[in-house]
Amino acid sequence: MPEPLTEELLNELLASGDPTAFIEDHHIQKRTLPDYLQYLLNIHGLQRPDVIRTAGINETFGYQIFMGQRGASRDKILQLAFAMNLTLRECNRLLKLSGANELYCKNKRDAIIIFCLDKGYTLQKTDDELYRFGEETIS
Fold first, then answer.
1. Full DSSP string of 68-135
2. Domains of the chain by start residue, with CATH
């Protein structure tokens, strides 16, 4: 089941008389990168080994990212996002949880990546587009 939009939750929180009830009703807690990665695997029906392989990430390093044992660069997170065929919203949430900046459409490289995510491009096709525009590739 997809998560409610942040705007919807915000409106409900602001309309509530008590934040405690809102927090309990929606099971609000601090979300970690491994938790969100597992959530994405579940809702997209993906398997961790397949995602790591498709992302082109070293198997051991990939598992460490999924387990929260190692941090990952922004580009490694983007590789995972493309391997999971995430939406822009999902990708930005993943980036934020990893401690990286979200994609920003006023940045040329990010604008190309946003376009490619939206069009469902593969990581390879996205790298080709970045190269074509003279930007650093993701992988």
1. TSS---HHHHHHHHHHTT--HHHHHHHHHHHTPPPP-TTSHHHHHHHHHHHHT--HHHHHHHHHHTT-
2. 30-132 (1.10.260)
Amino acid occupying residue 51: V
Alpha-carbon gap, residue 136 to 65, rounded angstroms: 23
pTM of the model: 0.83
Q: What is the pLDDT of residues 63-106, one digit of tens each?
A: 999 999 999 999 999 999 999 999 999 999 999 999 999 999 99
The answer to whether the beta carbons of residues 94 and 40 sit under 8 Å apart is: yes
Is residue 65 within 8 Å of residue 105, measured between CB atoms? no
As a whole number of angstroms, the distance between CA 61 and CA 79 comes to 13
| Max CA pair span of the chain | 54
Sign of CA dihedral 77, 27, 41, 4: negative
DSSP 8-state code for residue 27? T
Give residue-wise pLDDT tens across range 98-127. Answer: 999 999 999 999 999 999 999 999 999 999
Six-digit token pair at 89? 């919203």
